[in-house]
Amino acid sequence: MKKRILIVAGARPNFMKVAPLICEFNKYKSRFEILFVHTGQHYDFEMSEIFFQDLRIPKPDIYLNIGSASHAVQTAKIMMAFERVTLREKPDLIVVVGDVNSTLACALVTSKLNIKVAHVEAGLRSFDRTMPEEINRTITDSLSDYLFVSEKSGLENLKREGINSDKVYFVGNVMIDTLSANLPIINRSDILNEYGLTKREYCVMTLHRPSNVDSPATLSELLDVLSAVSERIKIIYPIHPRTMKMMNKHKFLNKFKKLENLLVVDPLGYIDFIKLIKESKFVITDSGGIQEESTFLAVPCLTMRANTERPVTIKKGTNYLVGRSKTKVLKYVKDILNSKSKKGSIPELWDGKAAKRIVKILSMSL
Ligand code: UD1
């Protein structure tokens, strides 16, 4: 009998993680029947559909159409809808990825129905419970039957939390599977010409964490830092809808747009965005995934957070934690512009084969 597997994605950073898994599961058609569920946590064309086109992800078999709401309401709505799907489809396993609300909601429903859960990107910890993602990760891991870990710090974290090592597999990074598989297409993107940018003469910025963009005080600090950076190098800033909403609410958008060397643009698709990173001088971000992508591409990354759940990007990669400190940002920008930043290396098992390992493990044990 074929095993039925539900693969869940809901928000932008999930799509590049499920793409290689769906592709790999499809090679085992005699063993597995795959149903792909999109919760609809993200729904704008630039936050969802464009990734399906860019990454050639099949249309979801089931779309839950949840949309935005407070954490409790969004999580509860996903749970209610996903429970109905799970009861109807009777899967043998669900696969969740990353750390968004959809990840936690679907893992919780599944484990209460005594169905097995696999968590891809398990074990990452920022040790910062003010981040919603940290709560999502910790609970999802405690519920999971298969924990697929992307960097070695995850092994230590799960051990410390008392999770049985028989359930834990160090498999590498599925985001890097997607990045390496798409490099030939990324190289052909014309996005630099479209925005009149020259290779290594600009930096890319993305900021969307509540801790950075939800209050006027932090937006003001960011404006001050970016104003100083923009005196040294051109900045391109694809702006997340959450940040746009907050900048409008707190009347900051025009202040950012007025900075001469800062180009504010709409969110970009995967191919164009990675091309922008790949050819940039450096990246400024508060995203988790971009810390990993810049490490893989050997592009310096200044992470505007106090901590990271991805310490390998600091120890082995090109990442620096800078918080919102103008002094730190300007120090590293100076180093980078003088070619004095660390060169970095690619972390263990970030070799484009993580999804292969995951599906092989599941094919042997399900
Ligand atoms: C979510 C994830 C975060 C991830 C980020 C990547 C959680 C708790 N957070 O944060 O981990 O880094 O996605 O993008 O799951 N909105 C739109 N269109 C959309 C989606 C959202 O306009 O397609 C706006 C809505 O106003 C919404 C706000 O963005 O209220 C925030 O969206 P939400 O999904 O709640 O969280 P993100 O900040 O996107």
How does the overall form come out from the CA principal axes?
A: globular
Helicity level, as a percent range? 40-55%
Order of helices and strands: EHEHEHEHEHEHEHHEHHEHHEHEHEHEHH
Secondary-structure class: alpha/beta
Biggest sheet, strands in spatial order?
A: 3-2-1-4-5-6-7
Identify every distinct bound molecule in the structure, by name, code or SMILES.
uridine-diphosphate-N-acetylglucosamine
Average pLDDT for all residues? 97
| Helix segment tally | 17
What profile does the largest beta sheet have?
Answer: 7 strands, parallel
Low-confidence stretches: none
The CATH superfamily of the largest domain appears as Glycogen Phosphorylase B
The number of distinct structural domains comes to 2
Q: Which architecture name of the largest domain does CATH use?
A: 3-Layer(aba) Sandwich
CA-CA gap between termini = 11 Å
Number of strands: 13
Put the structure in a nutshell.
Helices cover 46% and strands 16% of the residues.
Task: Please render the helix and strand layout as text.
Blueprint: E1 3-9, H1 12-25, E2 32-38, H2 49-54, E3 62-63, H3 71-89, E4 93-97, H4 101-112, E5 116-122, H5 132-143, E6 146-149, H6 153-160, E7 168-170, H7 174-187, H8 191-194, E8 202-206, H9 210-213, H10 216-230, E9 234-238, H11 241-249, H12 253-257, E10 262-265, H13 270-278, E11 282-285, H14 288-297, E12 301-303, H15 312-315, E13 319-321, H16 326-337, H17 354-365
Parallel strand pairs: 1-2, 1-4, 2-3, 4-5, 5-6, 6-7, 8-9, 8-11, 9-10, 11-12, 12-13
Helix pairs in contact: 1-7, 1-17, 3-4, 4-5, 7-13, 10-16
This protein binds uridine-diphosphate-N-acetylglucosamine.
